[in-house]
Fold this sequence. Notes:
The protein contains nine helices and 20 strands. By secondary structure, the protein is an alpha/beta fold. Strand 1, helix 1 and strand 2 (32-36) form a beta-alpha-beta unit. The longest helix has 18 residues, at 113-130. The chain folds into two domains: 4-84 and 110-185 and 377-417, FAD/NAD(P)-binding domain; 188-373, no CATH class. The strands form five sheets. Strands 1, 2, 6, 7, 8, 9, 19 and 20 form an eight-stranded mixed sheet that branches. A six-stranded mixed sheet has the order 12-15-10-18-16-17. The protein is globular, with a radius of gyration of 21 Å. Helix 1 (14-26) runs parallel beside helix 9 and helix 2 crosses helix 9. The site of flavin-adenine dinucleotide has 42 residues, from helix 1, strand 2, strand 3, strand 13 and strand 14.
Amino acid sequence: MNKHWEYLIIGTGPAGLGAAFEILSRDKNSKILMLDREKFSTGGLRNDCKMNFTYPVGFPQEYWEREQATHYLNRVENMLKPPIKAKQNLDVYQNRCASLNVELLDIRQAHLGTDGGLELIKELTAQLQEMGVTIELGREVLEVTENSLRLEEEELTFDKLIIAPGRKGFRFLQSAMKNLDIPFIDNIVDVGIRVETEEQHYPIVRDYYDPKFHFQEKVRTFCTNSGCAHVVREKYTCRHGNPYYSVNGHAYSKKEPNGLVNFAMLKTVRLTEPLASGQDFAEMLGQQAALLGGGKPIMQRVGDFRLGRRSKAHSFTGDLYSFKPTLACTPGDISLVMPAKILRAIWKSMKELDTIIPGILHPSTIMYYPEIKLYANKPQFADDHFRVKENVWMIGDGAGTSRGITAAWASGIRAVEGMF
Ligand SMILES: Cc1cc2nc3c(=O)[nH]c(=O)nc-3n(C[C@H](O)[C@H](O)[C@H](O)COP(=O)(O)OP(=O)(O)OC[C@H]3O[C@@H](n4cnc5c(N)ncnc54)[C@H](O)[C@@H]3O)c2cc1C
């Protein structure tokens, strides 16, 4: 086993993959090792795999101009060639939005589904391996220094290192930044709920797979799933070792439809002095939800929420409740655990959404809490290509250069451009 590599890439998500393909397109003889702590490849492409090809979706605007992002998006699309989904009746929905000061973005979108995403991953990793890239899974990087990596019982050195550990590698990235003495800000977090309802109550998904509504007060819809759609939970561990869950959603494109839709309603929270850590804030909210949910996320029916009462097990039976939650959670009262300012902004946006697409506030609709997005771990970059040290680059959702698959891939390309 080589101990020294020309290129080391931590993370086999879209950011790492984009970087690996770009290196090879510039020098096909490059010696590249990709490491991932998971036993399967490859990061967030596994989940639903919706790809958005319109700025600004997925692109933090502090790092990406429209023209620049569009240039990279064209390159990502040429590489991945996903089938783009048609949209219908956009003007009808946009007209309804106008009177409410809500924006419905017109996004070029593809949807492979969780099953289609897996096929893509296999294809991409096989291509990389054929081109000579070594991919090692189930290999967690424990520590990073300026010229070496520490894994369990092993140390590797590199000429160039790309760190792309995604959102779940948030804490690892923070420890790497501390080790490398890179200043960073972590003051933004998205907090909200995941909504699950029957497709008949949110029929826009037949016209537009993942409709992106932007409301006032920095609330937006995010990551809509339909077809065979499921709500899932992701486990996170706090700095002190306590676990908490954030909900999320995905869909299979090739399985029998289950008639359900889910999407997130998220509010972006930007923290200022004296509390500057979005991660700390998110952990506190996550643990509070876990405390009241007996270790699980909380779910509440809209019907109960409107009446100001908690949901109980029997809230999920009866003729108005014709579908079962796809994620088993604790029936409860999200207004007991969600900060009032966030809840108010999200509920107001839900009411506006119900005016645009009547039905979403049907009593059977479920609101799951918490959905938390940690991505704004913003390192101080030394150049325009996400370099943080002479030979180290940090990219993808973990480093805050992206918030989605296509932008993560674009970050990988942009970083490598700065190396040649
Ligand atoms: C359930 C779910 C559904 C989603 N659906 C969509 C969608 O439909 N469309 C969309 O655009 N985005 C979606 N996203 C977001 C998308 O997955 C991310 O934006 C994208 O994957 C970010 O890419 P990345 O390469 O930065 O990180 P990731 O894809 O998260 O990859 C990072 C990789 O690094 C590895 N890693 C972390 N720490 C270490 C370490 N210390 N050592 C070794 N390896 C490490 C991780 O195991 C992981 O495989 C979804 C996310 C989730 C969780």
